[in-house]
Design brief:
- Helices cover 48% and strands 12% of the residues.
- The protein is built from 26 helices and 18 strands.
- The strands form 3 sheets. Strands 13-12-11-14-15-16-17-18 form an 8-stranded mixed β-sheet, sandwiched between helices. It has a 7-stranded mixed β-sheet with strand order 1-2-3-4-5-7-10, sandwiched between helices.
- The radius of gyration is 28 Å and the shape is globular.
- The N and C termini lie far apart (58 Å).
- The relative contact order is 0.07.
- The structure holds (2S,3S)-3-hydroxy-2-methylbutanoyl-COA.
- (2S,3S)-3-hydroxy-2-methylbutanoyl-COA (T1G) binds next to strand 6 and helix 3.
Length: 655
């Protein structure tokens, strides 16, 4: 049967009466205008063609449908709109079954909800990730999903934007069945439908749900969303679905969707989406192939090393972890196993997965075992002589093509590379702690790093499921340099009249999970103190320097682990400590500063300006390639609220 073509991206073939429609719109089969018009044309054809008994909709490539075309946002709407297409599918007179061959996200998931049956392939996933873009499902998702899976599960999925795999989708009632060959199963399902009434999701009565359970699901979503509008609106609409008829619910959803689509929050989150896709692309690496990495050596199995090991193991690498003694190696193995156990408990890993990880792990005190590694990541104590000595030794052990990576956060990786005979194989991989959880990795392109070494480091980080951001060599790289800059600004404000809890409250209201002083207390004040002492000799005496943190450290207030820092922690609760207030007042008096009050807005403006000025300097120095890279570092490493787009974006948009 010849192929029928309905638009540049939608074609079909007739399989014994079943019109099998395929959407082929690379890279992710997004619902661009020609996909929507193609689907309508296919339905028009199926309406008049007597030989067509029903339809199957599927996607070409790895995705089913990746959602609305994000590149069309902010442009005038082109008909047919997605709600029009979806309404036509649901009310169609002949059966339509979707063969979900891959990710069905956003509008793609909404297409599946409107079909009369849903067959999931083994690699299918379903999700309504719109809140991650600052919007909500705009083509019926908030109204149809609760009809199919109940309001509680719908609040969870739509409110968090989390996607579910085929098995969970079937358990929830979001898919009918998992099939090895979803296309064949969908064609068979259309034939089975012959003569039977169609299941239209919009006509299903929403299953009743326990009010307390609904409130609990709602509270969970709201607690995560920290001042973001979209999740709250999404929950409101899912709840409204139980009260309104379909038509009213859809109208309310569409109005809210259009309002959110034009919001600052959505603009910011779209910026983050595209910044993430751009981050992995480095111009000078076009055409450069990464080296093959299968076995990863890790030196040091402390908090950082064991986190990196877990991340590598759970993503399929073989790991050789080196410690100084047999006892330390055994303890390291215990730490790694402990993290894997927790992953099993929280169902992020199966028991078999854990066993497979441990089977790929070798812990040793014999440095020469690292000869088998394609990449060695060092995660030892951040001291230059320790690291240079280690790199000198590693250089003599590993194979000539193997890559050496340092996880230093403040030292000069070029100095570490200089200890090797071949510095072109050295790169920086600055992980954030805990490394098995935090997505961000600063990939440091050192003075002599070879292009294929940099490309390999990027590929490695991506395979870990993490977000690589490339930067050049500077003290503290991108993140810690900006962090130092705004910490300095926060301390200036202390001297000028603000108190730690006022600054933290302003940051938390802005959307940071924790203010800077609370963060310092959690991380411990001693590392920054040691660094200030190291820099004291070379500090310009004319430069403004705030001594309050030094006074706290001298008094043994090193943060939470000592029970006190910028705050006191009786019973573990963060509380204002009059002793800290007194220390701040004494520092002001010593400099004859008359304190004044700060509004929350002024606090944020000053912190933002400090971040943006430092960011601009990093761009000017060529340390960071793009403002978006800086935004990603601050969002993923330092708690900057994603829905504000990162400091560079926020400043440009006057927030
Ligand atoms: N629109 C346009 N381009 C998209 C896109 C989309 N929806 N999704 C991805 N791309 C581009 C991306 O920019 C990149 O381009 C390339 O595809 C590969 O992406 C009405 C309003 C589908 C799981 O939020 O989660 O539907 O950089 O590197 O790792 O209710 O992309 O190569 O030029 O991420 O294989 C909801 C977002 C839209 C899905 C594939 N949909 N995408 O992951 O590839 S809103 C989403 C993803 C909506 C309706 C509403 C992932 C993916 P370039 P990639 P991947």
């Amino acid at each position: 049967m010849p192929e029928m073509r309905f638009s540049e991206s939608v074609s079909a073939r007739l399989d014994d009466g079943v019109l099998v429609v395929v959407i082929d719109n690379p890279p992710v089969d997004a619902l661009s205008a020609h996909v929507r018009s193609g689907l309508i044309a296919a339905l028009d054809h199926a309406t008049v063609a007597k030989e067509v008994t029903g339809l199957v909709i599927s996607g070409a490539g790895r995705t089913f449908i990746g959602g609305a075309d994000i590149k069309e946002f902010g442009k005038p709407m082109v008909e047919p709109t997605l709600p029009q297409v979806i309404d036509r599918i649901e009310s169609f007179e002949k059966p339509i079954i979707c063969a979900v061959n891959g990710a069905a996200l956003g509008g793609g998931c909404e297409v599946t909800l409107a079909c009369h049956g849903r067959i999931a392939g083994e690699t299918a996933s379903f999700g309504l990730p719109e809140v991650k873009l600052g919007i909500l499902p705009g083509a019926g998702g908030t109204q149809r999903l609760p009809r199919l899976i109940g309001p509680i599960a719908a609040i969870d999925l739509i409110g968090t934007g989390r996607a579910v795999k085929a098995g969970e989708a079937v358990a929830l009632g979001l898919a009918d069945v998992v099939a090895a060959d979803p296309l064949a199963a969908a064609i068979a399902a259309v034939r089975e439908y012959a003569g039977r009434p169609l299941r239209r999701t919009g006509s299903i009565e929403i299953p009743a749900a326990d009010a307390a359970a609904v409130s609990a699901a709602e509270a969970k979503v709201l607690a995560r969303s920290r001042g973001q509008m979209a999740p709250a609106e999404a929950v409101r609409l899912v709840k409204a679905a139980s009260q309104l008829d379909l038509e009213q619910g859809l109208a309310e959803e569409r109005a809210t969707f259009l309002r959110l689509r034009d919001s600052e929050e959505s603009a910011a989150l779209r910026h983050v989406f595209f910044a993430e896709r751009a981050a992995g692309k480095v111009e000078k690496l076009a055409g450069v192939s990464p080296r093959r990495i299968e076995t990863v050596g890790i030196v040091g199995t402390g908090l950082m090393g064991s986190g990196i090991a877990v991340s590598a193991l759970t993503n399929g690498y073989r790991v050789i972890a080196l410690e100084q003694t047999q006892e330390a190696a055994a303890a390291g193995r215990g730490r790694i196993a402990g993290i894997l156990d927790k992953a099993v408990q929280s169902r992020r890993l199966t028991t078999e997965g854990r066993e497979a990880c441990l089977a790929r792990l070798d812990t040793t005190a014999e440095a020469k075992t690292l000869a088998a590694a394609d990449l060695v990541v060092e995660a030892v104590f951040d001291d230059l002589s320790v690291k240079t000595e280690l790199f000198r030794r590693l250089d003599g052990i590993v194979a000539p093509g193997a890559i050496l990576a340092t996880n230093t956060s403040y030292l000069d990786p070029d100095a570490i590379a200089a200890a090797t005979a071949d510095p072109s194989r050295v790169v920086g991989l600055h992980f954030f702690s805990p490394a098995n959880v935090m997505r961000l990795v600063e990939v440091v392109d050192c003075a002599k790093t070879a292009p294929d070494v940099l490309a390999s480091a990027l590929a490695f980080v991506k395979r870990l499921g993490k977000l690589p951001v490339v930067c050049g060599v500077t003290e503290g790289f991108v993140g810690n340099r900006i962090f130092s800059a705004y910490r300095r600004e926060a301390e200036f404000m202390l001297e000028d009249g603000a108190l730690p809890h006022e600054i933290d409250a302003a940051m938390e209201a802005y959307g940071f999970p924790m203010g800077i002083f609370a963060v310092n207390d959690m991380a411990g004040l001693e590392i920054a103190w040691a660094r200030r002492k190291r820099l004291a000799a070379t500090r310009d005496p004319a430069e403004r320097y705030v001594e309050i943190a030094d006074r706290l450290c001298e008094a043994g207030r090193l943060g939470r682990k000592t029970g006190r820092g910028w705050y006191a922690y009786p019973d573990g609760e963060r509380t204002i400590d009059p002793a800290v207030t007194a220390a701040i007042e004494a520092a002001r008096a010593a400099k004859n500063i008359v304190p004044r009050t700060f509004t929350a807005e002024e606090i944020i403006d000053r912190l933002l300006k400090a971040m943006v000025d430092e960011g601009a300097a990093l761009l000017a120095e060529g340390i960071a390639a793009r403002p978006g890279d800086i935004d990603l570092v601050m969002i993923n490493g330092y708690g900057f609220p994603a829905h504000k787009g990162g400091p560079m974006f926020a400043a440009e948009h006057n927030r």
